[in-house]
Design brief:
The chain is 57% helix and 9% strand. It contains 20 helices and eight strands. An eight-stranded mixed sheet has the order 3-2-4-1-5-6-7-8, sandwiched between helices. Residues 358-366 and 437-443 have low confidence and may be disordered.
Length: 443
């Protein structure tokens, strides 16, 4: 996500931070480079023009150029302006306290509406909301079946009336069905088209004319760049939007749509899709995204991901095992599963301040395949071998290697690394006990 943009902006600002004094000419050169990078990332021209103008005015209209760290001060202003063009602050979906809340997802074909319906349902189910998915895409072959399969996978009911009834009537019937069941949230999947046409807009308008819809969210593919912005502008003009959902942001290394769409449409980005998995839809926080773009990490999102992936009781139990060096392959396997829930190792590293640059400089090697191989080897072990690795002799190593599709050398390497880690934990435990006896170390 924004990989090229982050890298290029990082290079520009590294040069800026290296200057002890900053002149207006230095600022002009820097901002010209920033402008070219943003335009190269497919950011809307007017958005770029206003952004550069605001950064320059704020940098010159203060004592920043005369300060002790002018470069850092300019970057601070750039960060603030980025937050502004991304929307300012996080805007959540507001639930109606008097009746069922209804969200209608709209968009072109292929933007990911149906999958996004299920992802929103997954998020709110985790918050103990009762949800009903409603299938109103009556044109696309297998759209209703796809929604039912997704609903079943997350344990959320899907309401359907087949492909013959009008969508506005389907939503009306769905609400009547939902009220006695105590449903909190209805999520409506609507039809898309390959392009915007009058029939599509009329159908969506009829849904809104005949039903109270709390949120009309446009799902757009971030990888289409400025086309996504133009589509959003037209949908907003024709039917009125309350917000936007950008999908496939994990595949968009440029980021032009995300940086343009709020300023052009005036509508906030409420969610971003960062992967294909059902749990890879995130609430959108402009300040966090600005930090990621500038290579400053995103600690808050990292903490939230960790909290949702790790069980608190298991974490406490694991800490005790660490202290006593009783950590087993069984524990290690559980940790691998929980880390996988948080996303790729590369994504996690990018959320840690400064780690993006280390990765770029190749001081840190990230090989996702290695984790897959480790998992395969552990999977090939028996329960006894996971708990008591010391029972693994030569013949067992051959069996484990064969079962994992790896070689014996790799099994030996993993066993050695595991033993080294246990020794390190044991030494840390001894050190903590020693320091606990010293005044000023309340361990």
């Amino acid at each position: 996500m924004f990989e090229n943009l982050t890298e290029k902006l990082g290079d520009i600002f590294d040069k800026l931070k290296g200057k002890g004094k900053l002149t207006e000419k230095d600022l002009d050169i820097t901002l010209r480079e920033v402008k070219l990078v943003l335009l190269g990332a497919d950011v809307n021209f007017k958005v770029v023009k206003d952004f550069i103008k605001n950064v320059k005015e704020k940098s010159l209209g203060s004592e920043i150029l005369k300060s002790l760290s002018p470069g850092h001060q300019v970057i601070k202003i750039v960060n603030e302006e980025l937050v502004d063009i991304l929307g300012g602050e996080n805007e959540k979906i507001i639930f109606n306290s008097n009746r069922v809340t209804k969200i209608m997802l709209v968009g072109l074909q292929g933007s990911g509406k149906t999958t996004t319906c299920a992802k929103i349902a997954y998020n709110y189910k985790a918050q103990n909301k009762k949800i009903l998915l409603v299938a109103a895409d009556i044109y696309r072959p297998a759209a209703i079946k796809q929604l039912k399969v997704l609903g079943d996978s997350i344990g959320v009911e899907v309401f359907s009336m087949g492909d013959k009834e009008e969508p506005w009537k389907i939503l009306k019937a769905a609400e009547e069905y939902a009220v006695p069941k105590g449903i909190d949230l209805i999520i409506l999947d609507t039809a898309g088209r390959l392009h915007i046409d009058e029939n599509l807009m009329e159908e969506l308008s009829l849904i809104k004319q005949n039903n109270i819809v709390d949120e009309t969210l446009l799902v757009v593919d971030a990888m289409t760049g400025q086309d996504a912005v133009n589509v959003a502008d037209k949908f907003n003009e024709k039917i009125g939007l309350s917000g936007l959902i950008l999908t496939k942001l994990d595949g968009d290394a440029r980021g032009g749509a995300a940086l343009s769409i709020k300023k052009v449409t005036g509508k906030p980005i409420k969610y971003i899709g960062v992967g294909e998995k059902i749990n890879q839809l995130e609430s959108f926080y402009p300040d966090r995204m600005a930090s990621r773009i500038l290579g400053m990490g995103d600690v808050l999102t990292l903490i939230e991901k960790a909290q949702s992936a790790f069980n608190e009781e298991e974490a406490k139990e694991l800490e005790k095992k660490f202290r006593k060096a009783e950590f087993t392959f069984e524990d290690f396997y559980k940790q691998l599963q929980q880390i996988k829930k948080m996303g790729s190792i590369s994504d996690i590293m990018n959320m840690i301040p400064g780690m993006g640059k280390l990765k770029k400089m190749q001081d840190v090697q990230v090989d996702e395949k290695e984790l897959v191989y480790v998992e395969a080897i552990i999977n090939s072990m028996t329960k006894e071998e996971r708990i008591r690795p010391n029972v693994i002799d030569g013949s067992r190593k051959k069996r484990i290697a064969s079962g994992a599709g790896r070689n014996v050398q790799e099994v030996n390497r993993l066993l050695k690394q595991f033993e080294d880690m246990k020794k390190m934990m044991k030494n840390m435990g001894k050190m903590q006990k020693m320091m606990g006896k010293m005044p000023g170390f309340p361990f």
